[in-house]
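Friendly challenge for the regulars: who can give me the structure tokens for this chain first? No prize, just bragging rights.
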Amino acid sequence: MSLRQMQYLVTVVEEGSFTRAAELLHVTQSALSHQIKALERESGGPLLERLPRGVRLTPMGRAYFPHAELAVRSAEQARRAALATAGAESGELHIATVHAHAVGVLPEVCARWGREHGGVRLVLHEYATTGDLFAHMERGVADLAVGPRPEKWPGPVTVVGTEDMVMVLPPGDPLAGRAAVRIDEVADRPWVRCALEPVLAGRLWLDVECERAGFTPRTAVRTQHTSTAVRMAAAGVGVLITAAHELTGLDCTAVPTDPPWRREITAFSRVPPTGAAARFVTLLRERRLPTCQRVRPRPSRTEIGTDEHLR
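First reply, four minutes later:
Bragging rights claimed.
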């Protein structure tokens, strides 16, 4: 089986159609089908189930696909890395991240990239949760990822910033004018929970903090995106804890927590970043994230250290 055949399989699965895959690969549909069938013969069975509208992986295909995808992505990354190391100022740089960082961290960095390295096009892969981000990075979807520190990541991880966590309240809330709010002061309130909520040592961070404060948070609503969660909290649905930089441009009231909570933002990859990827990491480290100015810079039990991280 060849890398080209695996590329064909990956493209068909991603597009969900032989027709669209053939157009992207610039081959005829019959040639594409022939190559897929050849791959299936060499693999020992059918990898794709042909449906009236589209295709889907067979059980054998589901077992085979992650390995094929990793091989294809690794080959693409190797080519881009070689070009970057040789000094090429063209091509693509693939960045993976979660939605909250795509809107709260990357716009300024991407704008600067366009001004300084416009010959290298950025391709952004956004995911709803950190679990999705980590899983796709393991499969080689991008050259570099930006997000919370991944747990037990085998490749290089670089801290590129720290985000302040704040409490989001509706305008006019009795606590809105406070310099800071303790979490036990909102123990009797409902909470807005988000799929991008940080994880601490395998547990949802908010559950850990509320447990330490002596209560269990009562969830009013769960959302997929931080921007939705912020609007819910601003409307009075419940209390939300989120990063200060995720509130840029949104109409809401944010109050620092007492003690202050912070979370690392990292850049991580499967191999040491070189060329364009290394330059992108440098721009990330130079970017200054918005902070809540009333946060008092003193150590706390959940501030980032060497042993305990918010992920």
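The first helix runs from residue 3 to 15. The chain is about 40% helix and 25% strand. Your move, everyone else.
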